[in-house]
Specification:
This protein is of the alpha/beta class. It is built from 22 helices and twelve strands. A hairpin with a 2-residue loop joins strand 2 and strand 3.
């Protein structure tokens, strides 16, 4: 049951105001003594010709404003405050969770609609660094969130596998490539020769000429150059896919720039036919003054296309093949202008799909008191960050297990450390709004009492431990629909149930704003509410077996809610720690 909507329905029936307006105005009061939901009566002042406080007072006494799940309704100034019956609320919310399990929060709002999420998109033959992690983690989470709401999601990895850099790589490989080193560690070897090319190019202009010639051969489809390009691409993907697999990330499509490059001529022809291309300093551009953005270059002065042209081709391809309802680009904020230009070109050309495209930007990644080995002087590799996080987590978990004399095998310790360590990194990217810069700090990331993945995972494991002990003692949680769930009406219990009830709405808001932190905030709230309940209420103690079983039901619901939320963020939970 959606209690917010139920409140809105009562107000609609009593006032005649349309449901959408009422539902939008219903608030969650800042203080508990103001109720669980509130409706501001200012909107009704004009139609009812009364002061808002008088309207609130009249509505509080209206016989239509009553329901079995409400304990009372009272007016406070211009606000109408609704207090839910705690027992009825607990029974309704927990019955839904206990019935659905980790399917809790699912919706069919996206049924029949397709969302494309383009994310990660690393450059072939270059290291996968922590900056790539931002788009990868955000995109992975958004894809899962949209799927939770019933959308068909297509995960796109728009690889950077085209451009003059490949002419340089082909030249460099022929001059200085080490085949054995390439087979052993392809990214490192390709980076080495790429850097060497730039160093040597400063004193040898012929290298620049050679690189241009090799890229031209690649564009023309010459067999030898294409074979080398394919080799570099395939080797890079092996490395990238190992990292994706470790993080649980998958893709449906790996079409990169090279795939759409062959369609660029069609884009140029289309824009010419529509009379949208104008010359500017030798280049062919589309003027976008009416959109308030600079002209978009389509053809450079030498007649070649650029990545903007290829992005336009990609959108048209996706529209034709997927008929998307939303096409999301999870790309850094610095690319905001580029996407405005690309979308504006399509809009000016008359394509309706332009309004279905959206750039989801994100901030920068910074470090606090961290030292990592790097391979190009300023690159922090994601793999190294993950390894370091897992290693530090392992030491913490091992020390904790020894202190508690917990019997854990080495394999179990390693498995737990891998999940918690990766979760710590992932959560750092999604714990706040995506446009905020991230500052990594081990003390913050691995704090088992802070706003961290270790805290969430530990809370889940603690709750699972309670359920295991209860089972050993012969107690089982109450089932969905049980009247005993109404016993969960204490302050800590009610606060926990309320936080669980907020999760489905948080998931919808996360999709609506493309902000996974809406989910992380909700899950963190559930964990904190549960731990307050755990610290202040006896779960397995005492002789009140009915309350004991009801509280175990709350524990099970907390587990399902936390697992649901962490999954949407891309984080795995563990059964014990």
């Amino acid at each position: 049951m959606d209690f917010r909507s139920a409140v809105a329905k009562l107000v609609e029936e009593a006032t005649g105001l349309d449901f959408e307006t009422v539902n939008r105005l219903v608030e969650i009061p800042p203080q508990e003594d103001m109720g669980d939901y509130a409706f501001p009566c200012f909107t009704l002042a004009k139609t009812m010709h009364k002061a808002p406080n008088m309207i609130a007072s009249d509505l509080a006494g209206n016989e239509k404003m009553s329901a079995s799940w409400l304990s009372k309704i009272e007016a406070k100034g211009p606000y109408l405050n609704f207090f839910v019956d705690r027992g009825a609320f607990a029974k309704e919310v927990l019955s839904e969770v206990l019935t659905q399990g980790t399917a809790f929060g699912s919706s069919d709002e996206g049924e029949g609609k397709t969302v494309i999420v383009e994310f990660s998109s690393p450059n072939i033959a270059k290291p996968f660094h922590v900056g790539h992690a931002f788009t990868t983690i955000l995109g992975h989470s958004l894809a899962r969130i949209y799927e939770k709401l019933g959308y068909k999601v297509v995960r796109m990895n728009h690889l950077g596998d085209y451009g003059t850099q490949f002419g340089k790589l082909i030249t460099a490989y022929r001059l200085w490539g080490d085949e054995e080193a390439l087979e052993k560690d392809p990214i490192t070897e390709l980076l080495r020769i790429y850097v060497k090319f730039h160093e040597e190019e400063k004193n040898d202009p012929s290298l620049t000429t050679s690189a241009r010639e090799n890229f031209k051969k690649l564009e023309d489809g010459c067999a030898e150059e294409v074979a080398l390009w394919q080799k570099f691409r395939d080797m890079s993907l092996v490395v990238f896919n190992a990292l994706y697999e470790r993080m649980g990330v998958t893709f449906d499509n790996y079409n990169g720039e090279s795939y759409y490059a062959k369609m660029a001529d069609q884009v140029v022809s289309m824009l010419k036919e529509k009379g949208l291309l104008v010359e500017s300093e030798g280049a062919q551009v589309v003027d976008l003054e009416e959109f308030g953005v600079p002209p978009c270059i389509i053809l450079k002065s030498d007649g070649t296309t650029i990545y903007g042209t290829r992005d336009i081709a990609a959108i048209l391809y996706r529209d034709e093949n997927y008929h998307f309802d939303k096409n999301i680009y999870v790309v850094g904020i610095p690319q905001a202008l580029h996407f405005k230009q690309v979308f504006s070109v399509l809009k000016k050309a008359g394509y309706a799909c332009a309004d279905k495209c959206e750039h989801v930007g994100f901030g920068l990644v910074k470090f606090q008191n961290m030292k990592f080995s790097t391979r190009d002087g300023n690159i922090v590799l994601l793999e190294e960050l993950l390894d370091e996080s897992v290693a530090k987590t392992y030491e913490l978990i091992k020390a904790n297990a020894e202190a508690r004399n917990t019997d854990m095998s080495e394999d179990m310790l390693r498995e737990i450390a891998e999940k918690v360590g990766l979760g710590a990194v992932i959560y750092t990217y999604v714990k706040a709004g995506r446009e905020r810069d991230i500052i990594f700090s081990w003390d913050t990331m691995l704090d088992f009492e802070g706003d961290t993945a270790p805290y969430l995972i530990y809370t889940y494991a603690r709750t699972k431990s309670i359920l295991r002990k209860a089972q050993e003692q012969g107690f089982v949680p109450e089932k969905a629909g049980s009247e005993l769930l109404k016993l969960l009406n204490g302050d800590e219990e009610f606060a926990c149930v309320k936080m669980i009830n907020d999760l489905p709405e948080a998931i919808k808001k996360a999709a609506g704003s493309n902000e996974p932190f809406m989910v992380s905030r909700a899950v963190s709230g559930i964990a904190r509410a549960f731990n307050r309940f755990y610290n202040n209420c006896s779960i397995l103690g005492g002789e009140d077996n009915e309350r004991k079983e009801a509280r175990l039901a709350l524990c099970r619901a907390v587990c399902d809610a936390i697992e649901t939320g962490t999954y949407l963020l891309g984080i795995s939970v563990v059964e014990q720690m």
